Amino acid sequence: MGEPGSGLPAERGKARDDAGGVAAGGVAAGGVAAGGVAPGGVAPGGVAPGGARAPGHPAADRRWLAEAVELSRRCPQSSTAFSVGAVLVDAHGEVIAAGYSRAADPRDHAEEVALRRARDAGASLAGATLYSSLEPCLRRASRPASCAELIAASGLRRVVIAWREPPVFQPGGGGVWLERRGVTVVEVPDLAERARAVNAHLLGA
Ligand SMILES: [Zn+2]
Description:
This protein is an alpha/beta fold.
């Protein structure tokens, strides 16, 4: 005589964000998996569908992170915030959701968009990895919850980034903060230059 199904209030009423037209899954799910990801030849030897796409394999990590960097190129330009791309991938190498900075709102951060879309879709994040072209922010001016806090609260246990947040707008430090909370943070420095180039106008060099 109970009401077993009343535990998920947060999923209601948020679905409209998805109508924003950015194609959360579309971007990554369609284009990426098809095989021809990286202009620079990210996937050595042709990544087989299945196992080698799974987060944790170095080639897979690099491939998904390269996709996040590609997404960052879609960000509406800003002189007051970084352009970042983020892709959430499950343990089997399937894209859960993706996002990029200012995707639906000028205050949007990439990781936040991906997490929001995953939540709205009711997706499980168990065993998932978040690929972000930039270290998740620890502090931000635009909204109260930083991406590092959102990630910690989401239950994600693994994050892969291309570079650490430089102290242009905020001090950075999201990666270390996450590691202190037991989240594994993997840096792939050879993609840093590609990720940084998207933000060259903010770096003054
Ligand atoms: Zn952020």
